[in-house]
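Journal club prep — side note

Before the paper discussion, L.F. wants everyone to see what a predicted structure for a comparable chain looks like in C-alpha coordinate form. Sequence:
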Amino acid sequence: MILSLGGALGFWKWHAGSGQKVVFSTAVVKRGSVVATISATGTVEPIEVIDVGAQVAGRISSFGVDNEGKPIDYGSIVAEGAMLAKIDDSVYAADLSVAKAQLEQSKAGEQSALAGLAQSKVKLVQNEAEWKRAEELGSAKLLSLSLFESAKADYEIAKANVAVAEAAVAQSRATAVQARAAVDKAQRNLDFCTIKSPVRGVIIDRRVNIGQTVVASLNAPSLFLIAKDLTRMQIWVAVNEADIGRVLPGAPVTFVCDAFPGREFKGTVGKIRLNATMTQNVVMYTVEVNTENSDKVLLPYLTANVRFVVGQQSNSLVVPNAALRWSPSSLTQIAPEARGWKPADVEKGGIAGRPGVIWTKEGEFVRPLEVRAGTSDGMHTAILGDELQEGREIVTGELVESSSAPATNQNPFLPVVRKR
Protein backbone atom coordinates (compact mmCIF):
# COMPACT_ATOMS: atom_id res chain seq x y z
CA MET A 1 0.00 0.00 0.00
CA ILE A 2 1.08 3.54 -0.61
CA LEU A 3 1.00 5.70 2.51
CA SER A 4 3.52 8.18 3.88
CA LEU A 5 3.14 9.16 7.47
CA GLY A 6 3.70 12.75 8.54
CA GLY A 7 6.32 12.91 11.24
CA ALA A 8 5.78 14.76 14.46
CA LEU A 9 3.61 17.34 12.77
CA GLY A 10 1.18 19.12 15.14
CA PHE A 11 0.92 22.13 17.28
CA TRP A 12 1.59 23.24 20.85
CA LYS A 13 -1.39 23.86 23.04
CA TRP A 14 -1.27 25.15 26.60
CA HIS A 15 -3.68 23.60 29.05
CA ALA A 16 -4.91 26.19 31.52
CA GLY A 17 -2.88 25.91 34.71
CA SER A 18 -1.36 22.59 33.69
CA GLY A 19 1.91 23.74 32.18
CA GLN A 20 1.71 20.91 29.56
CA LYS A 21 1.90 20.95 25.80
CA VAL A 22 0.13 18.49 23.46
CA VAL A 23 1.73 17.30 20.23
CA PHE A 24 -0.49 15.59 17.65
CA SER A 25 0.95 12.81 15.53
CA THR A 26 -0.53 13.04 12.07
CA ALA A 27 -0.55 11.23 8.75
CA VAL A 28 -1.58 12.13 5.23
CA VAL A 29 -4.40 10.32 3.46
CA LYS A 30 -2.97 8.56 0.42
CA ARG A 31 -4.44 6.53 -2.39
CA GLY A 32 -3.23 2.98 -2.77
CA SER A 33 -4.06 -0.70 -2.43
CA VAL A 34 -4.79 -2.72 0.68
CA VAL A 35 -4.58 -6.50 0.75
CA ALA A 36 -6.00 -8.43 3.72
CA THR A 37 -4.22 -11.71 4.31
CA ILE A 38 -4.11 -14.61 6.74
CA SER A 39 -0.65 -15.91 7.59
CA ALA A 40 0.02 -19.58 8.32
CA THR A 41 2.73 -22.20 7.96
CA GLY A 42 2.58 -25.33 5.85
CA THR A 43 4.63 -28.09 4.24
CA VAL A 44 5.24 -28.63 0.53
CA GLU A 45 3.92 -32.06 -0.48
CA PRO A 46 3.75 -33.95 -3.79
CA ILE A 47 0.17 -34.24 -5.01
CA GLU A 48 0.33 -38.00 -5.55
CA VAL A 49 2.75 -40.26 -3.69
CA ILE A 50 2.84 -44.06 -4.05
CA ASP A 51 4.22 -46.20 -1.26
CA VAL A 52 5.67 -49.31 -2.90
CA GLY A 53 5.82 -52.34 -0.62
CA ALA A 54 6.63 -56.05 -0.74
CA GLN A 55 4.00 -58.81 -0.73
CA VAL A 56 6.44 -61.61 0.00
CA ALA A 57 9.19 -62.04 2.55
CA GLY A 58 12.82 -62.50 1.69
CA ARG A 59 16.25 -60.96 1.35
CA ILE A 60 16.88 -58.05 -1.02
CA SER A 61 19.35 -59.44 -3.54
CA SER A 62 19.69 -56.54 -6.00
CA PHE A 63 18.31 -53.21 -7.19
CA GLY A 64 17.04 -52.29 -10.63
CA VAL A 65 18.23 -49.43 -12.82
CA ASP A 66 16.62 -46.07 -13.58
CA ASN A 67 16.08 -44.34 -16.92
CA GLU A 68 19.77 -43.37 -17.04
CA GLY A 69 20.98 -46.91 -16.43
CA LYS A 70 22.10 -46.21 -12.87
CA PRO A 71 21.13 -48.31 -9.83
CA ILE A 72 17.91 -47.24 -8.15
CA ASP A 73 18.60 -44.63 -5.47
CA TYR A 74 17.21 -41.39 -4.03
CA GLY A 75 16.04 -39.06 -6.80
CA SER A 76 16.08 -41.74 -9.52
CA ILE A 77 13.55 -41.30 -12.33
CA VAL A 78 11.89 -44.62 -13.14
CA ALA A 79 9.47 -45.73 -15.83
CA GLU A 80 6.23 -47.56 -15.21
CA GLY A 81 6.89 -51.29 -14.83
CA ALA A 82 10.62 -50.84 -14.25
CA MET A 83 12.26 -53.20 -11.75
CA LEU A 84 13.05 -51.46 -8.49
CA ALA A 85 14.43 -54.36 -6.45
CA LYS A 86 14.77 -58.14 -6.49
CA ILE A 87 13.99 -60.44 -3.56
CA ASP A 88 15.78 -63.79 -3.32
CA ASP A 89 13.34 -66.15 -5.08
CA SER A 90 14.92 -69.56 -4.45
CA VAL A 91 12.25 -70.64 -1.96
CA TYR A 92 9.39 -69.45 -4.18
CA ALA A 93 10.93 -71.12 -7.25
CA ALA A 94 10.98 -74.41 -5.32
CA ASP A 95 7.34 -73.92 -4.31
CA LEU A 96 6.47 -73.42 -7.95
CA SER A 97 8.21 -76.66 -8.92
CA VAL A 98 6.30 -78.58 -6.23
CA ALA A 99 3.01 -77.06 -7.41
CA LYS A 100 3.72 -78.01 -11.02
CA ALA A 101 4.52 -81.59 -9.99
CA GLN A 102 1.26 -81.82 -8.07
CA LEU A 103 -0.55 -80.49 -11.12
CA GLU A 104 0.94 -83.24 -13.31
CA GLN A 105 0.00 -85.80 -10.68
CA SER A 106 -3.59 -84.55 -10.60
CA LYS A 107 -3.73 -84.72 -14.41
CA ALA A 108 -2.59 -88.32 -14.31
CA GLY A 109 -5.20 -89.08 -11.66
CA GLU A 110 -7.85 -87.54 -13.89
CA GLN A 111 -6.81 -89.76 -16.80
CA SER A 112 -6.90 -92.83 -14.54
CA ALA A 113 -10.38 -91.91 -13.34
CA LEU A 114 -11.58 -91.50 -16.92
CA ALA A 115 -10.21 -94.92 -17.81
CA GLY A 116 -11.92 -96.48 -14.79
CA LEU A 117 -15.19 -94.84 -15.84
CA ALA A 118 -14.91 -96.29 -19.35
CA GLN A 119 -14.21 -99.73 -17.92
CA SER A 120 -17.21 -99.51 -15.61
CA LYS A 121 -19.48 -98.52 -18.48
CA VAL A 122 -18.35 -101.56 -20.55
CA LYS A 123 -18.97 -103.82 -17.59
CA LEU A 124 -22.42 -102.26 -17.17
CA VAL A 125 -23.33 -103.05 -20.80
CA GLN A 126 -22.26 -106.67 -20.35
CA ASN A 127 -24.20 -107.12 -17.09
CA GLU A 128 -27.25 -105.43 -18.59
CA ALA A 129 -27.30 -107.95 -21.47
CA GLU A 130 -26.94 -110.89 -19.09
CA TRP A 131 -29.76 -109.55 -16.96
CA LYS A 132 -32.07 -109.31 -19.96
CA ARG A 133 -31.34 -112.96 -20.92
CA ALA A 134 -31.94 -113.98 -17.32
CA GLU A 135 -35.33 -112.25 -17.40
CA GLU A 136 -36.35 -114.11 -20.57
CA LEU A 137 -35.23 -117.49 -19.26
CA GLY A 138 -36.75 -116.86 -15.87
CA SER A 139 -40.17 -116.07 -17.33
CA ALA A 140 -40.04 -119.39 -19.25
CA LYS A 141 -38.99 -121.23 -16.09
CA LEU A 142 -35.76 -122.27 -17.75
CA LEU A 143 -33.41 -120.60 -15.20
CA SER A 144 -32.94 -121.36 -11.57
CA LEU A 145 -33.85 -118.74 -9.03
CA SER A 146 -30.27 -118.38 -7.76
CA LEU A 147 -28.89 -117.65 -11.23
CA PHE A 148 -31.72 -115.19 -11.85
CA GLU A 149 -30.98 -113.26 -8.67
CA SER A 150 -27.24 -113.34 -9.33
CA ALA A 151 -27.69 -111.78 -12.78
CA LYS A 152 -29.88 -109.08 -11.30
CA ALA A 153 -27.31 -108.31 -8.55
CA ASP A 154 -24.46 -108.11 -11.06
CA TYR A 155 -26.44 -105.61 -13.11
CA GLU A 156 -27.14 -103.37 -10.09
CA ILE A 157 -23.49 -103.54 -8.98
CA ALA A 158 -22.37 -102.51 -12.48
CA LYS A 159 -24.64 -99.47 -12.37
CA ALA A 160 -23.25 -98.50 -8.96
CA ASN A 161 -19.68 -98.91 -10.21
CA VAL A 162 -20.39 -96.49 -13.07
CA ALA A 163 -21.65 -93.92 -10.56
CA VAL A 164 -18.53 -94.43 -8.41
CA ALA A 165 -16.29 -93.98 -11.48
CA GLU A 166 -18.09 -90.79 -12.46
CA ALA A 167 -17.57 -89.43 -8.93
CA ALA A 168 -13.88 -90.33 -9.12
CA VAL A 169 -13.60 -88.42 -12.39
CA ALA A 170 -15.25 -85.35 -10.84
CA GLN A 171 -12.95 -85.57 -7.84
CA SER A 172 -9.86 -85.86 -10.01
CA ARG A 173 -10.95 -82.86 -12.07
CA ALA A 174 -11.45 -80.79 -8.90
CA THR A 175 -8.02 -81.87 -7.71
CA ALA A 176 -6.58 -80.73 -11.05
CA VAL A 177 -8.26 -77.35 -10.71
CA GLN A 178 -6.86 -77.00 -7.20
CA ALA A 179 -3.41 -77.94 -8.46
CA ARG A 180 -3.63 -75.34 -11.24
CA ALA A 181 -4.59 -72.70 -8.65
CA ALA A 182 -1.59 -73.72 -6.54
CA VAL A 183 0.64 -73.31 -9.57
CA ASP A 184 -0.81 -69.85 -10.27
CA LYS A 185 -0.30 -68.85 -6.64
CA ALA A 186 3.29 -70.09 -6.61
CA GLN A 187 3.95 -68.30 -9.90
CA ARG A 188 2.44 -65.09 -8.53
CA ASN A 189 4.58 -65.28 -5.38
CA LEU A 190 7.61 -65.84 -7.57
CA ASP A 191 6.67 -62.77 -9.63
CA PHE A 192 6.25 -60.75 -6.43
CA CYS A 193 9.95 -61.28 -5.79
CA THR A 194 10.54 -58.66 -8.50
CA ILE A 195 9.42 -55.28 -7.13
CA LYS A 196 8.21 -53.14 -10.04
CA SER A 197 7.26 -49.48 -10.21
CA PRO A 198 3.48 -49.06 -10.62
CA VAL A 199 3.86 -45.56 -12.12
CA ARG A 200 6.37 -43.32 -13.80
CA GLY A 201 7.89 -41.00 -11.23
CA VAL A 202 10.77 -40.00 -8.98
CA ILE A 203 12.12 -42.01 -6.06
CA ILE A 204 11.70 -39.79 -3.01
CA ASP A 205 12.74 -42.36 -0.43
CA ARG A 206 14.55 -45.71 -0.54
CA ARG A 207 13.99 -47.60 2.69
CA VAL A 208 15.92 -50.85 2.11
CA ASN A 209 19.46 -51.90 1.29
CA ILE A 210 20.88 -54.91 -0.50
CA GLY A 211 21.09 -57.83 1.92
CA GLN A 212 18.29 -56.56 4.11
CA THR A 213 15.48 -59.02 4.86
CA VAL A 214 11.90 -57.84 4.51
CA VAL A 215 9.09 -59.64 6.31
CA ALA A 216 5.58 -59.35 4.87
CA SER A 217 2.96 -60.56 7.32
CA LEU A 218 -0.15 -58.55 8.17
CA ASN A 219 1.30 -55.28 6.83
CA ALA A 220 3.30 -54.90 3.65
CA PRO A 221 6.74 -53.42 4.43
CA SER A 222 7.40 -50.12 2.66
CA LEU A 223 10.41 -50.24 0.34
CA PHE A 224 10.19 -47.13 -1.88
CA LEU A 225 8.29 -43.86 -1.93
CA ILE A 226 7.58 -42.58 -5.44
CA ALA A 227 6.27 -39.14 -6.38
CA LYS A 228 4.23 -39.41 -9.55
CA ASP A 229 4.54 -35.78 -10.71
CA LEU A 230 6.75 -33.07 -9.20
CA THR A 231 5.61 -30.37 -11.65
CA ARG A 232 2.48 -29.89 -9.54
CA MET A 233 2.76 -29.61 -5.77
CA GLN A 234 0.55 -29.00 -2.76
CA ILE A 235 1.12 -27.09 0.46
CA TRP A 236 -0.63 -28.57 3.47
CA VAL A 237 -1.30 -25.53 5.64
CA ALA A 238 -2.53 -25.61 9.26
CA VAL A 239 -5.08 -22.80 9.68
CA ASN A 240 -6.47 -21.64 12.99
CA GLU A 241 -10.19 -22.16 13.57
CA ALA A 242 -10.60 -18.40 14.04
CA ASP A 243 -9.45 -17.80 10.44
CA ILE A 244 -10.79 -20.84 8.62
CA GLY A 245 -14.13 -19.16 7.90
CA ARG A 246 -12.42 -16.60 5.65
CA VAL A 247 -10.49 -19.19 3.62
CA LEU A 248 -12.49 -20.18 0.53
CA PRO A 249 -11.68 -22.70 -2.26
CA GLY A 250 -10.17 -20.99 -5.28
CA ALA A 251 -8.84 -18.02 -3.29
CA PRO A 252 -5.37 -16.77 -4.32
CA VAL A 253 -2.40 -17.62 -2.13
CA THR A 254 1.19 -16.43 -1.99
CA PHE A 255 3.97 -18.17 -0.12
CA VAL A 256 7.71 -18.07 0.38
CA CYS A 257 10.27 -20.67 1.40
CA ASP A 258 13.40 -20.03 3.41
CA ALA A 259 15.33 -22.08 0.86
CA PHE A 260 14.66 -19.43 -1.82
CA PRO A 261 14.90 -15.99 -0.18
CA GLY A 262 13.45 -13.15 -2.21
CA ARG A 263 11.28 -15.38 -4.37
CA GLU A 264 7.51 -15.45 -3.97
CA PHE A 265 5.38 -18.33 -5.24
CA LYS A 266 1.69 -18.28 -6.09
CA GLY A 267 -1.07 -20.83 -5.71
CA THR A 268 -4.78 -21.31 -5.11
CA VAL A 269 -6.78 -22.91 -2.31
CA GLY A 270 -7.79 -26.43 -3.30
CA LYS A 271 -9.94 -27.82 -0.51
CA ILE A 272 -10.32 -27.69 3.24
CA ARG A 273 -10.00 -31.00 5.04
CA LEU A 274 -12.66 -31.66 7.65
CA ASN A 275 -10.53 -33.83 9.95
CA ALA A 276 -9.46 -31.07 12.31
CA THR A 277 -6.73 -31.57 14.90
CA MET A 278 -6.23 -29.94 18.27
CA THR A 279 -2.86 -28.45 19.20
CA GLN A 280 -2.51 -26.87 22.66
CA ASN A 281 -6.29 -26.49 22.93
CA VAL A 282 -6.48 -24.77 19.52
CA VAL A 283 -8.43 -26.42 16.69
CA MET A 284 -6.47 -26.46 13.43
CA TYR A 285 -7.74 -27.33 9.94
CA THR A 286 -5.54 -28.53 7.08
CA VAL A 287 -5.97 -26.51 3.89
CA GLU A 288 -4.62 -27.84 0.59
CA VAL A 289 -2.99 -25.19 -1.61
CA ASN A 290 -2.25 -26.16 -5.22
CA THR A 291 0.73 -24.63 -7.01
CA GLU A 292 2.63 -25.18 -10.24
CA ASN A 293 6.24 -26.33 -10.09
CA SER A 294 7.17 -26.50 -13.75
CA ASP A 295 10.83 -25.71 -13.05
CA LYS A 296 10.86 -28.27 -10.20
CA VAL A 297 12.52 -25.77 -7.87
CA LEU A 298 10.15 -26.64 -5.00
CA LEU A 299 11.32 -29.73 -3.17
CA PRO A 300 9.06 -32.06 -1.18
CA TYR A 301 8.65 -31.28 2.53
CA LEU A 302 9.96 -27.71 2.41
CA THR A 303 8.43 -25.37 4.98
CA ALA A 304 6.29 -22.65 3.39
CA ASN A 305 5.16 -19.38 4.96
CA VAL A 306 1.73 -18.92 3.41
CA ARG A 307 -0.48 -15.86 3.04
CA PHE A 308 -4.13 -16.36 2.07
CA VAL A 309 -5.55 -13.32 0.26
CA VAL A 310 -9.00 -12.87 1.85
CA GLY A 311 -9.70 -9.29 0.70
CA GLN A 312 -8.27 -6.65 -1.59
CA GLN A 313 -9.10 -3.06 -2.49
CA SER A 314 -7.21 -1.14 -5.16
CA ASN A 315 -7.02 2.60 -5.83
CA SER A 316 -8.70 3.43 -2.52
CA LEU A 317 -8.08 6.05 0.13
CA VAL A 318 -5.85 4.52 2.80
CA VAL A 319 -5.29 5.61 6.41
CA PRO A 320 -3.35 4.05 9.31
CA ASN A 321 -5.41 1.92 11.66
CA ALA A 322 -4.33 4.20 14.52
CA ALA A 323 -6.37 7.00 12.97
CA LEU A 324 -9.55 4.97 13.40
CA ARG A 325 -8.74 4.18 17.03
CA TRP A 326 -7.79 7.69 18.23
CA SER A 327 -10.21 10.18 19.76
CA PRO A 328 -9.55 13.58 21.47
CA SER A 329 -8.72 13.49 25.16
CA SER A 330 -10.16 16.95 25.82
CA LEU A 331 -13.12 18.87 24.47
CA THR A 332 -10.85 21.90 23.99
CA GLN A 333 -8.98 20.00 21.27
CA ILE A 334 -12.10 19.92 19.06
CA ALA A 335 -12.94 22.82 16.79
CA PRO A 336 -15.54 25.08 18.53
CA GLU A 337 -18.20 24.60 15.84
CA ALA A 338 -17.84 20.81 16.04
CA ARG A 339 -17.95 20.37 19.79
CA GLY A 340 -21.65 19.51 19.71
CA TRP A 341 -21.08 16.62 17.26
CA LYS A 342 -22.32 13.24 18.37
CA PRO A 343 -21.60 10.07 16.37
CA ALA A 344 -24.69 8.20 15.19
CA ASP A 345 -23.35 4.63 15.21
CA VAL A 346 -19.61 4.19 14.82
CA GLU A 347 -17.24 1.35 15.67
CA LYS A 348 -13.98 2.39 17.25
CA GLY A 349 -11.05 0.62 15.66
CA GLY A 350 -12.33 0.41 12.08
CA ILE A 351 -14.22 -2.88 11.73
CA ALA A 352 -14.58 -3.71 8.03
CA GLY A 353 -17.96 -2.72 6.65
CA ARG A 354 -18.96 -0.70 9.73
CA PRO A 355 -19.09 3.09 10.18
CA GLY A 356 -16.10 4.72 11.88
CA VAL A 357 -14.70 8.16 12.58
CA ILE A 358 -11.35 9.80 11.92
CA TRP A 359 -10.16 13.25 13.09
CA THR A 360 -8.73 15.71 10.64
CA LYS A 361 -6.32 18.45 11.76
CA GLU A 362 -7.41 21.99 11.05
CA GLY A 363 -5.07 24.61 12.50
CA GLU A 364 -4.91 24.19 16.26
CA PHE A 365 -8.00 21.99 16.45
CA VAL A 366 -9.28 18.65 15.19
CA ARG A 367 -12.55 17.97 13.45
CA PRO A 368 -14.48 14.62 13.25
CA LEU A 369 -15.21 12.97 9.94
CA GLU A 370 -17.45 9.92 9.64
CA VAL A 371 -16.18 7.24 7.24
CA ARG A 372 -16.82 3.61 6.43
CA ALA A 373 -13.98 1.15 6.93
CA GLY A 374 -13.08 -1.32 4.23
CA THR A 375 -10.33 -3.90 3.84
CA SER A 376 -7.53 -3.84 6.42
CA ASP A 377 -4.13 -5.47 6.35
CA GLY A 378 -3.54 -4.97 10.08
CA MET A 379 -1.63 -1.70 9.69
CA HIS A 380 -3.67 0.30 7.20
CA THR A 381 -7.33 0.38 6.23
CA ALA A 382 -9.10 1.39 3.05
CA ILE A 383 -11.92 3.83 3.83
CA LEU A 384 -14.81 5.58 2.12
CA GLY A 385 -16.02 9.05 3.07
CA ASP A 386 -17.90 11.76 1.22
CA GLU A 387 -15.78 14.57 2.62
CA LEU A 388 -12.47 12.72 2.75
CA GLN A 389 -9.91 13.68 0.14
CA GLU A 390 -6.44 12.51 -0.80
CA GLY A 391 -3.70 14.50 0.89
CA ARG A 392 -5.77 15.50 3.89
CA GLU A 393 -3.97 15.51 7.23
CA ILE A 394 -5.47 13.26 9.88
CA VAL A 395 -4.56 12.63 13.52
CA THR A 396 -3.18 9.25 14.58
CA GLY A 397 -2.19 9.99 18.20
CA GLU A 398 -0.96 12.56 20.69
CA LEU A 399 1.98 13.16 23.03
CA VAL A 400 1.82 15.29 26.20
CA GLU A 401 5.05 17.13 27.12
CA SER A 402 5.84 19.16 30.27
CA SER A 403 6.82 22.79 29.60
CA SER A 404 8.53 23.40 32.97
CA ALA A 405 11.91 21.89 33.68
CA PRO A 406 11.97 19.74 36.82
CA ALA A 407 14.48 20.23 39.59
CA THR A 408 15.99 16.82 39.03
CA ASN A 409 18.57 15.88 36.47
CA GLN A 410 15.88 14.38 34.21
CA ASN A 411 16.07 15.51 30.60
CA PRO A 412 13.36 18.19 30.25
CA PHE A 413 12.94 17.42 26.56
CA LEU A 414 11.82 13.82 27.07
CA PRO A 415 8.09 13.57 26.20
CA VAL A 416 5.64 12.32 28.78
CA VAL A 417 3.37 9.83 27.03
CA ARG A 418 -0.22 9.89 28.14
CA LYS A 419 -1.51 6.36 28.19
CA ARG A 420 -5.13 6.27 27.13
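L.F.'s comment for the group: Residues 90-139 form the longest helix (50 residues). Keep this in mind when we get to the figures.
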